[in-house]
Amino acid sequence: MAEKTSSISRRKFIIVSSEAIALPLFLDLTGTLPEARGNLSGKIYFITSECVGCQTCRLFCPESAIRFADCRNEVMQDKCMHCGTCYRECPVGAISETIV
Amino acid sequence: MTTKVIDCDLVVLGAGGAGLVAAVKTADVSRKKVIVLEKAKKPGGATLFAAGLRIKDSTWQKEAGEKVNDPPDISGQFFDWLVSKGGAEKYFYVTKPDDPKSAWSSIHVHDIMDRYKGHPQPGHSPGWMGTYVIDKMLECCGKAGIPILTETRARKFVIDSNSKVTGVLADTKDGQLLVNCKACFIGAGGFGADYEKCRKIWPTEFNYKPMLCVVPRSITGDCIDMAEEIGAAIDLSNAWFTGGASPCHFPYSHSVQNISSEPDMLIVNLNGKRWMLTDDVIKDIRNGSGVNLHSDSLANQPQAAVYNIADSDTVQKVAERCIANESTPSKLSCLKKWREEIANEVEMDETGAKGNHTKKADTLVELALKMDIDPKVFIETVERYNKICENGRDPDFGKDPKFLVPVLKPPFYAFFGHRFTQCTKGGIVVDYDTTEVFDKNGKTIPGLFAGGDGITFRDVKRTKSLEGLTNCVTTGYKGGIASAKYLKSVS
Q: Are the CB atoms for B476 and B10 separated by under 8 Å?
């Protein structure tokens, strides 16, 4: 993964920067999922097949980013704030934490 | 590969209800050094999801004004011990025994534990009696200094020439671990998460059609195999599994699950037809205990799944009945949200979310198309069923007239349901009083004890008292006392 070049969020970056500076950096940023989404923890969370469907993660998720789909819970990546609450709360350890 | 060696008096395999109770009880009685090995990332296992505990003859019940026997039953002893660990009073409530003559009371945590308040599905979540026991035991482990090594998977028993267990070899994240011990307690549970093992015993139910597994994936019965390797007797002839098939058991919000499990629904298979239900099911429906489809009957249907059909009147009537029958506050507040929960699911379904969410339609044809069923067949089924309801007698499948409710008033609803499995029960043959493990010749293996789901009692038949959480904690409790006694005798 590309190194962290900037902690500026993508939207702010595009507004405040001139196009000439923005272009090379923007290309760099698009490759990094966490930067583009304002992910400062640098971690992404997925619910693995170990999920037993108890919905405890749904209870604790501060962003309501977990929904019930296909008999299993699912993290909606576009809503996820990467806080890791679900990872800590899952009673069976079914949520995977990947450092990107 | 590096092998780390540690020494202890008792090694406990599995940090579930049975294992933790045994560990804490042993340390309580004997002050011996105990170590717990757990394969999963977190302790708790299947016990976390257990709801109620059935007990008999506890001092606690006596103080609550119930008639109890003396000396107390082992479950009562366990419960008194649990209460003595403190902080329990505000939590428990007793449900009356099903049979007034029986002395068994169910103890539940009064309402879902504070931590889990607001859970979308409070009926099938952590936060009840099982979680309470685990939390309490973890607290006690902390106080007694009992280490719980997670992500440590026991692989093999080390035995000496007299087939006495002297250690356990385990795999950890970064190598091997050899735990030298004087005694071992197996509390590793059943094998509900191992499909092939289940299939060997129950081929009719485990027939490769969809079956949701709702126990933690670590419940694969490894220790049963390990014990068999060193000559322990294994008896799976009377093994059983809990679960079976209940429409909408897990994948739904609480109210939707409760409503759709009521017997008023018209149940059709994925071809849109009713089918012959087994006697068990008919009995269940007659008893009014809800549709708990036995998997035998469902296993032969396409995809082993069902749709529960109801019109809007029935849904309303059933929802009101569920609300009237519910006494637990957190479940009640969920049930009261039934309108929005159904609406929410319908919306998810219509926006194309994965999974079979509740379907709603203004006409039966539309509903059939949403369910992917031939409308002609479906309408035929519904018309026939409505006619049966009108006559008040079901010559086709013998459904109780009380629950013959026609499907008439739009909008119509279809609730999807499929099978699920939970725990299995049966495995290593142990003594009822001491939980000592027997070998194939009927002799006990010195220093080896077992409890929880992965055991079969020698000479004791299945009874209500030996099920679920009660079995789990009482065997752990008995195992703890017996292993402490054993450790005292060998040291």
A: no
